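tokens incoming
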């Protein structure tokens, strides 16, 4: 039971971080499109991009059983 609770917490945190970084990535794209020069938006965009890739990898590892059932169903 303890392991299920821990796995659930990891999944919740992973999804929350993934959503947050995705929103930040979109916000930096909008800021770059408007020409905002208050701070280095390009560096923030780069950091968010690398973080997004890392979180997607974590997401795949954490949800591998569910993703396997979706993409490779046993008929």
């Amino acid at each position: 039971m303890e392991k299920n609770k821990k796995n659930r917490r990891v999944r919740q945190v992973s999804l929350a971080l993934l959503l947050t970084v995705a929103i930040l990535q979109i916000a930096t794209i909008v800021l770059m499109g408007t020409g905002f020069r208050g701070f280095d938006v390009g560096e923030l965009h780069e950091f968010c991009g690398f973080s997004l890739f890392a979180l997607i990898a974590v997401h795949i590892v954490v949800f591998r059983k569910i993703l396997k059932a979706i993409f490779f169903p046993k008929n």
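note: The longest helix spans residues 2-34.
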